[in-house]
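INTERNAL AUDIT FORM
Audit reference: QA-55
Scope: verify that the stored structure record matches its stored sequence.
Auditor: D.O.
Record contents follow.
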Amino acid sequence: MNKIIKLLNLIVVAACVFTSCKKDVRALNLNVTAVSNLSAPADNSDIKLEPITGANIIFQWSAASTPDSGVVLYEVAFDKTDGDFSNPVFKILSDGSGLQTQASISQKDLNKIAALAGIASSSSGKIKWAVLATKATNAVLSTQSNTLQIERPAGFAELPDSLYITGTATESGGDITKAIPLRKTADGTFELYTSLKAGNYILTDKPNESGTEYFVDANNIIREGNTPATISGDTKVYRLNYDFNIASAKQTVIDSIGLYMSAYNTSIGTLNYVGNSTWEAANVHVEFYPFDWGRDERYKFILHTESGDEYWGSTNANNNPPAGQPESYFYLVPVTNAQWDNTYKFDPSADMHNVKVDVFFKADAPYTHVVTVL
């Protein structure tokens, strides 16, 4: 009998739970009103993009509402002027992970959006924007859309994160798997010290056939495509600089590097290029300058370029002798031509001896140098 009573109690409890559950089930209300007012930027605003230095553009609109005050997420949708936002070229969540009625959109992203809408670099065109208010699975487009007149700068909306050079004119030849990497100095800017000989070369963001390729035209403008740039004449050593933010290329010829000794106020030796971003002076005689207070051992370097001399030296205005110093002691940075500033000091054993000097402007390591007493 006790077993029967217990069983009946369980049935009653289960029935109550089932009945209670049925009473708590409610249909989810997906209703949400469309955003009715886009307040900023105003319709037909002109925006001149400056992706590197420009501040974010603030997009603002009125709030949508729901019958139950539920959570609404917002997205700003962009489209071509003849589009209907059914397949926008770009969407971005509003601030606060989609909860706020404004979106702070970077000029870099707007540059990319304009490119997706078909506006070429260094030109102007129109795009339009609207706001999607979404509750759960229900997305409602704003009743208003605004048009923007966008002026794009020269340069690329999508900046490569890495860059390589390859081709018959380069030190690595035409095998793309052996393409030479460049140093990334900032977003979209790259640098390489190398030699180029008669032949052709191309730039790519990957050392394989899947990379995006770029070339430099006759006006030193970087363009996307696989038209190789051509080099003619004798082999020369260059500092190559590429800025994809403004689609600009610069090639600076480097004739040699001088080993400048401060006390003499002149170079005491010449380093010549030996390949692989390296300069070498195999045998330079060093004699410290005799002052009343002692013998002076300070030195730095001069890059002799077609555009003029550049001084390279230490990050420190004044230095101690090199013994026991970290590797960073020998790092090279651009410095002024001040006779005594930002110099290094030879090891005392170099006085009245010959030294071998190597300067390394390699893309994958800090620019630096080594002095070996012979």
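Auditor finding: record pair retrieved intact. The two ends are 108 Å apart (CA to CA).
Action required: none
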